[in-house]
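Researcher: We plan to redesign the surface later, but first we want a full-length starting point. Tokens attached.
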């Protein structure tokens, strides 16, 4: 793909979209201090440091990464609400690798992660990825169900991947450029908007 094609495909990625009452927009450095680091700290036994996030965000400009935050409007009056979740994608060799998905405990089970994954899926398709993949803890059965809804299926196990203790299930979702996959995403989006 030429540089111009790549730039055209990335057009529109700077704007925000609202999915199921959740606003999805690109993660900015200032979001780290205003929500992201707090959510990260309560989401994982070994949270990423601010430096890791900064290094990831620094790779967005060159097209190697994509990071999104989710906000809920606090007063319903159009004011920007606080960051309630975020998710990231690493682009490599025509595939997208989900690096992180987390939602503030008080905002879970309300479709925030679903809205974030819809955003990432659209970006992966726009960038020409043919598949996307992720690792998930064996114990995170709720997250596995979320990913299953997006068409991810278990493809292998990385032994003691987390803290040298817990196994990771590797999940893959293939053929994401196909019309069937676009339809699945549209169905998920419609359910969220209901
Ligand atoms: C996993 C996580 C991101 C899900 O976020 P969320 O915003 O609550 O997810 P959604 O509301 O979009 O859930 C969509 C569906 O996924 C499944 N799901 C999500 N969390 C679940 C849970 N704790 N238990 C069971 N099912 C769950 C359900 O099928 C859910 O649909 P339903 O609420 O209609 O039943 C969130 O629990 C989290 O941040 N966990 C800590 C960090 C983490 O483990 N991240 C994943 C790393 S691989």
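Model: Full-length starting sequence:
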């Amino acid at each position: 793909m030429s540089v111009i094609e790549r730039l055209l495909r990335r057009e529109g990625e700077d704007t925000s979209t609202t999915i199921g009452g959740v606003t999805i927009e690109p993660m900015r450095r200032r979001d780290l201090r205003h929500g992201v680091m707090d959510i990260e700290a309560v989401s994982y036994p070994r949270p990423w440091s601010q430096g890791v996030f900064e290094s990831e965000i620094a790779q967005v400009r060159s097209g190697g990464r994509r990071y999104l935050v989710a906000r809920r409007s606090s007063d319903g009056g159009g004011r920007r609400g606080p960051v309630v979740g975020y998710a990231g994608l690493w682009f490599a060799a025509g595939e997208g690798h989900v690096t992180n998905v987390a939602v503030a405990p008080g905002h879970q089970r309300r479709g925030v992660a679903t809205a974030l994954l819809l955003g990432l899926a659209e970006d992966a398709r726009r960038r020409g990825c043919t598949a996307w993949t992720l690792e998930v803890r064996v114990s995170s059965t709720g997250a596995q169900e979320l990913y299953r809804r997006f068409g991810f299926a278990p493809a292998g196990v990385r032994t003691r991947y987390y803290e040298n203790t817990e196994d990771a299930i590797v999940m893959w979702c293939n053929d994401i450029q196909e019309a069937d996959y676009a339809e699945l995403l549209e169905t998920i989006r419609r359910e969220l908007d209901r």
